[in-house]
Automatic annotation (TrEMBL):
Pfam families: NUDIX. Belongs to the Nudix hydrolase family. Keywords: Hydrolase, Magnesium. Residues 6-135 form the Nudix hydrolase domain. It is an enzyme of class 3 (hydrolase). Its cofactor is Mg(2+). InterPro entries: Nudix_hydrolase, NUDIX_hydrolase-like_dom_sf, NUDIX_hydrolase_CS, NUDIX_hydrolase_dom. It comes from Negativicoccus succinicivorans. Its EC number is 3.6.1.55. One of its GO terms (molecular function) is 8-oxo-7,8-dihydrodeoxyguanosine triphosphate pyrophosphatase activity. This is 8-oxo-dGTP diphosphatase.
């Protein structure tokens, strides 16, 4: 008789896109909690068998209608979901060719903001913590590299 292995709890994986267009970053206002509508970066959970890039492109397209160019990872974030289930995410620097956003039902509004304006918006605490762990020079360097690689200064 074969003994069953105890079922292992799995950890959720997520991706977030810091999308740049003409020196601004896209943020979305969530529509999931009555009375509380924090801002966040586009993104979401990985589906079974999906890699980070595929998940990021799918989530960004679903939430914003944008097709993005992924330039690389820039940070990690952690969050405890409902019932304390852990979620770990990877943030990527991306570039969009347009600022025309089509929101899904998951969000109420969007803004293209300069990095220094992010403090004016109530970002989810887990994202704010993750951003604080990214050295400002690292984020600025990633943005500059993105501009150089794709000629965003046109």
């Amino acid at each position: 008789m074969q003994r069953k292995q105890p079922r292992q709890r799995t950890m959720g994986m997520s991706v977030k896109a810091i999308i740049w267009h003409r020196g601004r970053i896209l943020i979305l206002q969530k529509n999931d909690r009555p009375g509380r509508h924090p801002w966040e970066f586009p993104g979401g959970g990985l589906e079974f068998g999906e890699d980070f890039a595929a998940a990021l492109r799918r989530e960004v397209r679903e939430e914003t209608g944008l097709a993005v160019e992924i330039l690389g990872p820039v940070g990690l974030w952690n969050f405890r979901r409902h019932l304390g289930r852990p979620l770990t995410g990877v943030m990527f620097i991306c570039r969009a060719d347009t600022e025309e956003v089509t929101l899904s039902f998951e969000h109420l509004a969007y803004r293209w903001v300069r990095p220094e304006e992010l403090a004016e918006y109530p970002l989810h605490a887990s994202l704010r913590k993750a951003l604080a762990q990214i050295r400002p020079a690292q984020l600025a360097q990633a943005a500059k590299l993105a501009q150089q690689l794709v000629g965003e200064n046109k």
